[in-house]
Amino acid sequence: MQIGLIGCGNMARALARGWGRPLLCSDPIAERARSLAAEVGGEALASNAELAARADLLVLCHKPAQLEAVAAEVGSGTTPVASILAVTPLAALRGAYPGRPVYRFIPSLPVEVRQGAVVQAAGPGGLDAGPAGADADSEALDAAVAGLFAELGTLVVLDDALLDVAMGLMSCAPAYVALVAEAQVDAGVRRGIPAAQGAELVVQTLAGTAELLRRRDYDTMAVRREVSSPGGLTARGVDALERAGLRRAFSDALDAVLQERR
Ligand SMILES: NC(=O)c1ccc[n+]([C@@H]2O[C@H](COP(=O)([O-])OP(=O)(O)OC[C@H]3O[C@@H](n4cnc5c(N)ncnc54)[C@H](OP(=O)(O)O)[C@@H]3O)[C@@H](O)[C@H]2O)c1
């Protein structure tokens, strides 16, 4: 399936690197499309219309506010569309691309290294039924499109109404985790650990902890218990983080993300 990326910014680059195969690319800044196409061995096209004529799947990677303008440039046709646009529900996508199978995904930056989480919107016209109904062809297309995004990491299907909440967890998370790592490194620097070694210790431990959590079925409490002996040092550290409002801070962060988007 020939993928066509409409918009070649940060997330398009991460998707392209994760897929690691030749792609068609378009972007108002021609050099941006050219350099991404060159990196993955694909082809930069001069317009969204040209890309739409050549691709088997249009992947919308522009900003949400550009939905209508890009749809007008793409024009009519039946080529399926997969969107990664935040705050753009399936109904809006179907309105912009009538007569086409439409899919909605939200990725996270680690798709670049195929370790991302990707969330897909379920519901009519998503996984369950294309515009032509759930015949064998549309089911095969649903599976092929979902399979492409599943190459990039763990694919989780949620109701369309929850996709922006999911985005607030996983798409923002690389920034949150980087900030948490930085805070830990700084704490170590304050106690005399050189920043470079502190960063190695913290980041490798983050990566290892993520792998342990996967192996323990994402049971966060199990991992916490393994390092927290009663009355021990880690329990004291965790207590300090709780008293400093760690949980509240993440809850507030999610509220802030969703509030700003309204
Ligand atoms: N970044 C993330 O972590 C993340 C996560 C989940 C979802 N998303 C979604 O992914 C989309 C892209 O985000 P991003 O961070 O990659 O943004 P970005 O870096 O700004 O990339 C968007 C690209 O689309 C281009 N564009 C603008 N108008 C276009 C048009 N008519 N045709 C083709 N391309 C056009 C932009 O060009 P100009 O700069 O010249 O306008 C820019 O190169 C957004 O809808 C966002 O909601 C992002």
Characteristic terms for this protein:
alpha/beta; binds NADP nicotinamide-adenine-dinucleotide phosphate; 262 residues; 8-stranded mixed sheet
What would you note in describing this structure?
The longest helix has 21 residues. The chain is of the alpha/beta class. Strands 3-2-1-4-5-6-7-8 form an eight-stranded mixed sheet, sandwiched between helices. The chain is elongated and about 65 Å long. The two termini are 35 Å apart. Bound molecules: NADP nicotinamide-adenine-dinucleotide phosphate (NAP). The site of NADP nicotinamide-adenine-dinucleotide phosphate (NAP) has 29 residues, from helix 1 and helix 4.
Poorly predicted segments: none
Q: What is the terminal-to-terminal distance?
A: 35 Å
User: Could you describe the largest sheet, including whether it forms a barrel?
Assistant: 8 strands, mixed
Number of helices: 12
In brief:
This protein has helices spanning 10-19, 30-40, 48-54, 67-74, 90-96, 136-150, 163-170, 173-190, 195-215, 220-227, 233-243, 246-261, and strands spanning 3-6, 24-26, 43-44, 57-60, 81-83, 102-106, 116-122, 153-159.
